[in-house]
């Protein structure tokens, strides 16, 4: 079985390691060379991984002249994490204040509406009605699963999905055959390079 490729999070961690271990500035084309060489990251995925790190603020980038440079230092990660913790603490404090305000409102409304026999009976009737409504809704949902229109829609969706999968499989097979004829490369080498596992099967 071919070795498992790196997950996106593993690629992010390893690409950050390149920055933190070297404490240097890089262009994209340099990272696309260093990624496979130092960390086993497929060069074609380096750009996407780098952009996700930039979007999360873990990597900084700037254009100098005609070139874009990227950098990240270990201290940046700590600062970002601390900022997130501070924001979470502020949100928690705000939510606690809102909860206290809501509790006070509830207690105030309870004091304005003392529970008597008439109100207790009405609340009991309301609870019973809600339960009946839930039972009826379950029955409706059960019948809905057998609705001929919905069944036909699901069949149509499955057929379209299968047809699309067949087209892509055919395209892949044609391109793979053409590429092997043109370059003389082994099929298994190409599949490993494209990270296509051994469990891949053609769809008929």
> Mean pLDDT, nearest integer?
79
Helical segment count: 7
- Rg (C-alpha, Å): 30 Å
Name the helix and strand elements from N-terminus to C-terminus, one letter apiece: HHHEEHHHH
Terminal Cα span: 23 Å
Detail the poorly predicted runs: none
Assign the structural class, choosing from mainly alpha, mainly beta, alpha/beta, alpha+beta, or little secondary structure.
mainly alpha
Biggest sheet overview:
2 strands, antiparallel
Shape: flat
Instruction: Specify the helix fraction band.
Output: over 70%
Instruction: Give, in spatial order, the strands making up the sheet with the most strands.
Output: 1-2
The portion of residues forming beta strands comes to under 5%
Strand elements, count? 2
Short summary of the structure?
This protein has helices at residues 8-22, 28-39, 43-55, 74-112, 117-144, 148-183, 187-193, and strands at residues 60-64, 67-71. By secondary structure, the chain is mostly helical. α1 (8-22) packs across α2 (28-39) and α1 (8-22) crosses α3 (43-55).
Q: Can you walk through the features of this model?
A:
The chain has 204 residues and is mainly α. 74% of the residues lie in helices and 5% in strands. It has seven helices and two strands. The protein has helices spanning 8-22, 28-39, 43-55, 74-112, 117-144, 148-183, 187-193, and strands at 60-64, 67-71. Strand 1 (60-64) and strand 2 form a beta hairpin. The longest helix is centred in the middle third of the chain and has 39 residues, at 74-112. The two termini are 23 Å apart.
């Amino acid at each position: 079985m071919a070795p498992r490729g790196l997950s996106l999070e593993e690629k992010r961690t390893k690409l950050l390691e390149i920055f933190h271990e070297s404490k240097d500035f890089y262009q994209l084309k340099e990272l696309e060379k260093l990624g496979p060489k130092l960390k086993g990251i497929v060069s074609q995925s380096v750009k996407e991984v780098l952009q996700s790190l930039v979007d999360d603020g873990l990597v900084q980038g700037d254009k100098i002249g005609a070139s874009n440079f990227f950098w990240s230092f270990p201290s940046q990660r700590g600062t970002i994490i601390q900022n997130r913790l501070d924001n979470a603490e502020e949100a928690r404090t705000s939510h606690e204040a809102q909860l206290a305000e809501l509790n006070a409102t509830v207690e105030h409304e309870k004091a304005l509406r003392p529970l008597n026999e008439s109100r207790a009976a009405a609340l009991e009737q309301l609870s019973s009605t809600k339960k009946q409504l839930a039972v009826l809704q379950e029955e409706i949902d059960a019948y809905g699963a057998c609705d001929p229109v919905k069944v036909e829609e699901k069949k149509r969706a499955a057929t379209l999905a299968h047809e699309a999968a067949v087209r892509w499989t055919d395209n892949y097979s044609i391109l793979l055959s053409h590429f092997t004829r043109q370059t003389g490369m082994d099929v298994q080498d190409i599949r490993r390079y494209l990270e296509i596992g051994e469990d891949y099967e053609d769809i008929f």
